[in-house]
User: Fold these one by one.
Assistant:
Number 1:
Amino acid sequence: MKLLAPSILSADFSNLSREIRYVELAGADIIHCDVMDGKFVPNITFGPLVVSAVNKITGLPLDVHLMIENPDLHLEAFVNAGADYITVHQEEVIHLNRTLNKIKELGAKAGVAINPATPVETLTEVLDLADLILVMSVNPGFGGQQFIPNSITKIRKLSDLKQKYGYKYLIEVDGGINKNTIQQASDAGCNVFVAGSSIFSADNISAAATELKNLIQQ
Ligand code: DX5
Ligand code: ZN
């Protein structure tokens, strides 16, 4: 399964409905929402209020990427706001098993993200529990950064483990995904492709999303 997940981080928030409509028309599968608190990452974005507004704008599933401290405190609020997937960071969550179970109990799919410097091996004991593993291919916090090539090795590792042990998780890549990098991530076994600036900073948002979608469908 290959899914395109535009990240609204780089969208024009004064025209969010219009921008989301553009990517829907291009065949986007998921809307990726980047929640940042200015602590876990140096940037601040938005919280459940905006996620709830996005949920009203679109019928697509919402993939909420929590780049915040103490995400456990906010899981329920994001599920109530309409999150279909909630992804927490391995580096922040001490009781990862508990948190992933909590997300599932609340009725959402449970994702776990690893930063570029975090090895895949730190997830070994939760691979059977996770619905989604997010490989960060930039250091989180900002859109428009350059893809870190080592992420391909991590995606391949996760794909091999999935095959070997029959795990069910989707593999997602996030950061620096554009027409030059998406193919290699796809070839390595990635399922969900987050793209922010390469879609929403393009002159033609729909055309940019269509181009990425076509590349992963080949
Ligand atoms: C970065 C965010 C990404 C961001 C990606 O911390 O998690 O989702 O929107 O932006 P691009 O695609 O521009 O690298
Ligand atoms: Zn993200």
Note: Residues 7, 32, 34, 65, 174, 194 surround zinc ion (ligand 2) (CB under 6 Å).
Number 2:
Amino acid sequence: MFHSDNLSVNTKNHLMIGSHDTVDLAREYGTPLYVLDEDLIRKNCREYKEAIETYFDGNGLVLFASKALCTMHTARITAEEGLGADVVSGGELYTLYKAGFPMEKVFFHGNNKTPDEIELAITYGVGHMVVDNRFELDLINEIAGAKGIVQNVLFRIKPGIDAHTHDFVKTGQIDSKFGFALENGEATQIHRYASTLTNIRIDGVHCHIGSQIFDVDPFCEAAKVMINFIADLYESLSLKIKILNLGGGFGIKYVAEDDPLPPTDYIKKVAETVKDIAKQRNINLPFLVFEPGRSIVAAAGITLYTVGCIKKIENIRTYVSVDGGMGDNPRYILYGSKYSAVVANNASAELVAPITIAGKCCESGDIIQENIMMPEIKVGDTLAVLSTGAYNYSMASNYNRIPRPPIVAVRGSEKKLIVKRETYDDLIKNDIL
Ligand code: LLP
């Protein structure tokens, strides 16, 4: 009935996540509440790892893109599952460091890393910096030099691939703030320059074409372009590139119409392309890195809300307002993202009419979903919005000074609060009177 296998309905007609009744969770922890199915996250991590084993002889590494969901607990469980991590800020890096994440398996991204962030990354012993521009490269060389180390780097390349996704989450084309373009030669020039720097070791190349992509062809195209570039670098500069990091971006199912491939299929097809082109160009197979974020955590998360008021505007629409909104899920207001929702305390009821789920912020655009078919809803019902595990908590804000919800992780019959609910005192703790 639901598009994620970990959701079901019990005899009380309540929505279950794993073996937990969501109505009980809402009662125990209050709403809004993020619930995370740790078993599903671990299963997804294993699926990715096994795909690399099966289709690339284990010659690769899967990184969890922490931007999708960055907490100390998720850092710990992805580390336990043997994944590396992609971080994009000092804050993400610090979270992982404090959680005991192995720093040598961290790749540090970002188009404008500050000197402080670079210093921190090098001090922590981050395995690879993914260099976005020449200013940063010089800074890394200088800071690594001052510490007497040689820093491993990858260069972020724009492969010129147009992925069919929302404009805001497309990144592989030349008109992008990220990385070095191939078309105008800057990608080659930066490698030539970097090979003259004493505290830089050129280890690999990276690209990321976008997010929530369903079609495997753009990933294969990107792989092709990148392998050809690796071969060209060897021919023109005698550079041996060892790592090919193809980023993340694999799509997931938010609504019935979404039809993503299982992650294994993406990896299989991309690995085949990499092998083919490497053979054609007569180069060694690179160490293959992927950076999935959404496809590891999105379906594992749901958000529980309580319905506070219902406003039926005859011949226009019905607003059902919940106790959260754009503060805990800004994806509709940002991207018009689609979600599915369930009345958790009446989970298999028949769908009767379209409603608009609105948040409690002082902003008309504060909507979680517009005109979705739902069963009869009453004030006090628990509403579950599905597949909110990625880019919800990590993009949450305190707009209108609304405290961010807690996260509870469930695993088998166990449950654990992994992020506390913010308090009003948390909201004012940095204010100075
Ligand atoms: N690697 C790099 C370099 C990235 O920029 C991203 C996402 C990923 C990996 C992970 O992509 P994923 O597998 O999660 O699609 N806030 C937007 C998504 C922005 C994605 C940014 N970069 C959203 O809510 O849809």
Note: Residues 65, 67-68, 86, 109, 169, 208, 211-212, 247-250, 291-295, 331, 335, 390-391 surround LLP (CB under 6 Å).
